[in-house]
Amino acid sequence: MTGQALYAVVGCALFCLGFHALVVAAHPLRRLLAVNVMGSSVFLVLVAGSAPGDPLPQALVITGIVVAVAATALGLNLLLRLSVPAADGESGGGESGNGRQPS
Amino acid sequence: MKRAGSAVLALVLAGLAALMAWIVTRPVQPGRDVPAHIAGSIGDSGVSHPVTAVLLNFRGYDTLLELVVLLVALAGVRCLAPLPPPRGGAPVGGVLSELASLLLPVLVLVALYLLWAGASRPGGAFQGGALLAAAGILALLAGRDRFLWRFEHRLWPLASLGVGVFLIVAAGTLGGSGVLLGLPPGHAGTLILVIEGFALFSIAVTLVALFLGTGELEDREP
Amino acid sequence: MNGAALLPLLVLWPLAGGLLALVAPRGVRFVLGAGTTGNLVLALSLAAALPAAGPFNHAVGGWGAPLGIALRADGLSTVLVLITAFVAPLLALHASAAYAGPERRYFTGLFLLCLAALNGLFVAGDLFNLYVTLELLGLSAVALAALGGGPTALAASLRYLLATLTGSLLYLLGVALLYRAAGTLDLAQLAGQGTGLPGGPLAFALMAAGLLLKAAVFPLHFWLPPAHANATPPVSAALSGLVVKAPLYLVLRLWLSIYDGAWPLVAELLAALGAAGVLWCSLQAVLQPRAKLLVAYSTVAQLGYLLIALALVPAAGLTAYGAFVLLLVSHVLAKAGLFLAVGNLARRARHDRIDGFERVVQHMPLSAGAIALAGVSLMGLPPSGGFSGKWLLLQAGIATGAWWLVGVVLLGGLLAAVYIFKLIEHTFGGSDRPDATALPRRMEWAALALGGSAVGLGFLGQPLLALLGGLP
Fold first, then answer.
1. Every domain of chain C and the residues it spans
2. Could you write out the DSSP letters of every residue in C353-365?
3. Residue C359 — very low, low, confident or very high, per pLDDT cuts 50/70/90?
4. What are the residues facing C12 on neighbouring strands?
5. CB C31 within 8 A of CB C20
6. What is residue A94's predicted lDDT score, i.e. its pLDDT?
7. What is the pTM assigned to this prediction?
């Protein structure tokens, strides 16, 4: 097996590992991390599975990384918002008109 | 019961992984040779690095949408009710402070260099933007948050600059030649640099704002 | 205007609008109105130009495949763009009264960006471009679902986010396998190739699994009811009406174009899942004490019908295809109207327990009427879009010898009648309670317009099918 093919195989294994963790894990943070592992694994398969030096998958992966970062940021903030009581004493999200306006 | 379900799932996934691994290691002869197409058209693309050419010219439409995805995430975060400011934490120590002083100018310079180099070497708006964002986060972690006041009340205009400039180019090309993002070969290089410059800045602003999460940045009230 | 130039405009116009709303919060009401109305004008122009100029093709950047990205619009894409454009201004009308302050600005921005994502998805002709639009759609939907909500809404949004991301990644893995084998991401270049490519069947399985998860098809529907039930009414209407249809459209598109509708086993599996979804989730809807959860489960149930129609397309051809589109369009209208109307009732009563909606018809006749009209379409009673769709579905089922389908449609219709009447019984019956929070009239008119359109579609089936044209 060539070196590049080995990366692709690792990508497949990581995807399934991440999927398993996503289903089995209880805490949402672990699920978010599992999704991140799955994302990285798909990028790995995309680049390692194509012809060596093909620029197209590399560009696709750059796009994919940015999208994954955006999604993870949203997920983490939702998670934080759920776990931490709000500044004005309520837990979770606020209603508009209560305490500080969301900006 | 849950253990059994988890074990069954693990077995199924192991089988799937094996199947995927087998497929991915079989040699293929794709009917089309994309690297050859890229090599053939790169002369008209305005840049010489193939990945940058794909990102900003051949598949620039994807890049435009991806910048919008960043803004959507920012919007989703900003409309959540603010979190209370973090309490406690260790005071910023000597090493972190010194390192920040050394690294921050370097990071900014390298980010700008990556923007410039992206035309002919690996680099570009995203790489530079991520580095600039890292500089911003390092500054925040080292307690140097005075730069934030420049961004108060201006978060959205600054974060939207990248997409805004990209949209103007898109609308211009659509109106001018009827082809969306059909960059004229003579000016493609300049247009790409302009788009990437604004995009780099907006990406950095957006990533730092995502790091700050809810609150902490006053925004203009409607 | 040149038809092909409309395709990029359908994405750029709402995109610019969404951006403007986020940057300049002062003109938000105008931006929402102009954004959705302008989009409707573009969609109508596209639909008007389609019969004469045929399917449209726009090569972005002037680069042909496999180098560049192609935008394409045939009958199916045009119909979907059109129905999205029709519903959006009505949702905007409702939302302009439902939201205030900073929330209105974020709703406008996210809603218009969601609209751009939908349009972008329906006209995309490139596999990776579809991935980016799917992610844009998913993230804007999650953000909208979390907007202004309490802890329940946030928890539901987080689960929605995890589900939608998993679906996208499964899809992208399939795309990776296809690109590896075929060397292109363009749908037209991949047409008919899928079955012969190494890894082609596995790629389809992965992509379909991811898309069905995003479409909340039974049994992968666990994330939908909490997310749609806890969002604000215009968001629930957009999510159940529009967002959840896009992945289903994509499954049909990929199956027919890349794989030629191959593998009868796939058809049988999809039909079985659809039937199970109809029956199980209709039952769940009947059992719900909260109105919004009832409507959310009804969404998953109705999606089951769509899936059955989809499964029958290779075998039954145009009949099943027409059934799919009619059922889809009528569900968009009926479900959006129903969510808006139920939202109005809940806002007035300050809760959404069905047995608490007493005699609302006296104070909110328009909303009650909207519920009744939308219910007619959901139950599949004539005349309505839902009836026309189910009629075609039955025809397709009988033509292919799927006699069990008759039983499923009848039983599903019966269960739908039960849960619709459960809603109607309390809004039209019960004792009067005069206390009320006055609601702006346009919130009710929006709901009524949508419900009425679902019924009116029963008379417009033929022109719609004519616009649709042949199989893609």
1. 1-125, 126-261, 263-458
2. BGGG--SGGGT-H
3. low
4. none
5. yes
6. 39
7. 0.94
CB pairs under 8 A between A and C: 94
Q: Pick B82's closest partner by Cβ from A9, A48, A100.
A: A100
B220 to chain C, closest Cα gap in Å? 8
Q: Is C421 helix (H, G, I), strand (E, B) or coil?
A: helix
Q: Do C12 and B167 touch (CB under 8 A)?
A: yes
- What whole-number percentage of chain C has pLDDT above 70? 97
CA pair distance C414, B200, nearest whole angstrom: 57
Closest CA of chain B from A27, distance in Å: 16
For C58, the 3-state DSSP assignment is: strand
Q: B89-103 in b/e burial notation, b at 16+ Cβ within 10 A?
A: eeeeeeeeeeebeeb
Chain C residues closer than 8 Å to B38 by CB: 67
Contact flag C182-B222 (C-beta cutoff 8 Å): no
Q: Which residues pair with C124 in a beta bridge?
A: C71
| Cα separations in angstroms, C182 against A53, A83, B20, B32, C254 | 17, 46, 16, 7, 15
Taking Cα atoms as reference points, which of B120, B126, B129 lies closest to residue B55? B126
pLDDT in tens, C263-309: 899 999 999 999 999 999 999 999 999 999 999 999 999 999 999 99
Which residues make beta-bridge pairs with C138? Answer: none
- Which of B138-142, C52-56, C209-213, C465-469 is predicted most confidently? C209-213
Report the length, in residues, of chain B: 222
Q: Are C471 and C317 in contact (CB under 8 A)?
A: yes
* Architecture of the CATH domain A3-83: Orthogonal Bundle (1.10)
Over residues C46-72, mean pLDDT: 91
ipTM of predicted complex: 0.94
Q: In whole angstroms, what separates CA C353 from the centre of its chain?
A: 25
C-beta separation of A45 from A8 below 8 A: yes
In whole angstroms, give the CA distance from residue C340 to residue C444: 8
* pLDDT confidence band for B28 (50 / 70 / 90): confident
B56: DSSP letter: I
Pair of tokens at residue C30: 């105008």
**Would you tell me how many other CB atoms lie within 10 Å of the CB of residue B158?**
17
Q: Which of chain B's residues have a Cβ under 8 Å away from the Cβ of A100?
A: 81-82, 215
Query: CA-CA distances (angstroms) from residue C324 to B42, C82, C382, C394, C409?
Result: 44, 16, 17, 12, 14
pLDDT tens string C133-187: 999 999 999 999 999 888 999 999 999 999 999 999 999 999 999 999 999 999 9
Distance of alpha carbon C400 from alpha carbon C139, whole angstroms: 39
Q: Which chains share 3+ C-beta pairs under 8 angstroms with C?
A: A, B
Q: Measured between alpha carbons, how far is B197 from B46 in angstroms, rounded to an integer?
A: 15
Residue ranges per domain, chain A?
A: 3-83
Is residue C61 within 8 Å of residue B180, measured between CB atoms?
yes
Measure the CA–CA gap between B196 and B192, rounded to whole angstroms: 6
C463: exposed, middle or buried (Cβ count in 10 Å: 0-12, 13-18, 19+): exposed
State the amino acid at position C459 in one-letter form. F
Q: Is the CB of B68 less than 8 angstroms away from the CB of C133?
A: no
Which letter does DSSP use for residue B50 in this model? Answer: H
List the structure tokens of C269.
Answer: 């599996």
Pairwise CB contact (< 8 Å): C135 & A81 = no
Confidence at residue A24, expressed as pLDDT on a 0 to 100 scale: 93
Residue that is written with structure tokens 């666990």 in the block:
C222
- Amino acid, single-letter form, for residue B183: L
